[in-house]
Write a structure and sequence with these properties.
The protein is α/β, with parallel strands linked by helices. It has a domain of 132 residues: Peroxisomal Thiolase, Chain A, domain 1 (3-Layer(aba) Sandwich), CATH 3.40.47.10. GO terms for molecular function: acetyl-CoA C-acyltransferase activity.
Length: 418
């Protein structure tokens, strides 16, 4: 059927709810997987396709990202018997997931394919670690490292610490406020059977752990794991024939930068992150605002990254992030829970995919927690958030995922229950 004559296909409104995430999949979160990233990627993609109720032959597009590791899409596709009409493998980390969802939409909108799998496979503990250890320890110093290492910026924590310290200086943010992010995410992970760390921690536990890079304590930092993760994106029309309740994509913004990226601190304020600019795209594209969001997935490479993003995307006023993350708002049962799987701090580190996976399940109302399975085969959520219990957010309708690569780059996505 042709579009009405007055349809503006250049408007973000045209794409709202036109595409959906129909399948999510992951491997176990381990340390020492004993598998190649090819095996992990194939495992996760197969699970995501099955979750959608599709066959490998139904997939004709594939996107992946890596940061000196992983496996190319064509190998994963070949192992699963998938012939691709479109594929692309890109370099990138934490800001990739939401950006690639946007690229998948663009590829389908251009008629290049009809269903796209996005995956990330990484042996993030046993092989290529994010800091200067593991396989990276013997890598030649080149590119941006020639600048960063001269200042002692080898790990992510070292590179991001100036933004964290400046926020504390400018706004009086206290370490115990931000430590609440870890404590709350650990509560969520205690209700997640697949989380790597399930132990509930306190703010005092975080502050008592050793300093890694001021102001970061050990427990302010994410857990390194080996894993594969994947999501399936297709049209909303096709989603209606898939296995689960459709989760519609309202809007995306991908790899939005501060005015200068390589040395973002030269274009202040240092404690402002890319979300300050990305929100000018995200909320108009999605047609909603922060006040409409029921659940967030704010990238938690560190406790501070969660706080800075929630603040700069407008969930609270600038300078009030410390209070926002420590006053109960982001806890299960609070106004707007964050990272209900435990996120990168507790479930596993996936460069952002697992937080999208979790929010998809939240919007389906079928989070895989410890609640009992009913006679109809569906989980009977109790909304009892004590340890070992439920983590499903009641009446969850709209989610926001906030991806982070570094203070100067970010991506984001808003989804809703169809």
């Amino acid at each position: 059927m042709p579009l009405p004559a007055d349809t503006d296909t250049t408007s973000p409104k045209y794409l709202r709810d036109k595409y959906a995430i129909v399948g999510v999949g992951e491997t176990t979160y381990t340390r020492g997987s004993g598998r190649t990233t090819r095996a992990l990627g194939t495992w996760a993609v197969r699970n995501a396709i099955a979750d959608a109720g599709l066959k490998p032959s139904d997939i004709d597009g594939m996107l992946s990202y890596q940061s000196g590791d992983s496996t190319f899409s064509t190998f994963i596709a070949g192992d699963l018997g998938i012939r691709l009409n479109f594929y692309m493998d890109v370099f990138g980390g934490g800001s990739s997931t939401e950006a690639l969802v946007g690229l998948a939409i663009g590829a389908m909108e251009a008629g290049m394919c009809k269903a796209v799998v996005i995956f990330r496979a990484m042996n993030g503990f046993s092989q290529v670690r994010i800091g200067g250890t593991g396989a990276r320890a013997v890598a030649p110093v080149s590119g941006d490292m020639l600048h960063g290492r001269a200042y002692g910026w080898q790990s992510a924590g070292q590179m991001f610490a100036p933004s964290f310290m400046r926020h504390m200086h400018d706004y009086g943010t206290r370490p115990e406020q931000v430590a609440a992010v870890k404590a709350i995410h650990s509560e969520h992970a205690s209700n997640n059977p697949k989380a790597y760390y399930k132990e509930r921690l306190t703010v005092e536990d975080v502050l008592a752990s050793r300093i890694i890079c001021k102001p970061l304590h050990l427990l302010d930092c994410c857990v390194e794991t080996d894993n594969g993760t994947a999501i399936v994106v297709t049209s909303a029309d096709r989603a209606r024939d898939c296995k689960h309740h459709p989760v519609l994509i309202r809007g995306v913004v991908g790899r939005c930068n501060k005015p200068r990226l390589d040395m973002h601190y030269q274009h202040g304020p240092i404690s402002t992150v890319a979300g300050r600019y990305a929100r000018e795209i995200l909320w108009p594209n999605a047609g909603v605002g922060p006040e409409d969001v029921d659940i967030t997935g704010s990238y938690d490479a560190f406790t501070f990254t969660t706080m800075l993003q929630l603040e700069d995307y407008g969930f609270c006023k600038k300078g009030e992030g410390g209070d926002y993350v420590s006053n109960g708002t982001i806890r299960l049962g609070g106004r707007r829970p964050n990272n209900t799987s435990g996120g990168h701090l507790c479930e596993g580190y996936t460069h952002g995919v697992n937080m999208v996976v979790e929010n998809v399940r939240q919007l389906r109302h079928d989070v895989d927690d410890s609640c009992p399975i009913g006679p109809d085969g569906k989980r009977q959520h109790t909304y009892d958030y004590r340890q070992g219990g439920c983590r499903q957010v009641k009446n969850c309708e709209v989610s926001a995922n906030l991806g982070w690569a570094n203070p100067g780059t970010g991506s984001a996505m808003v989804m809703r229950r169809g």
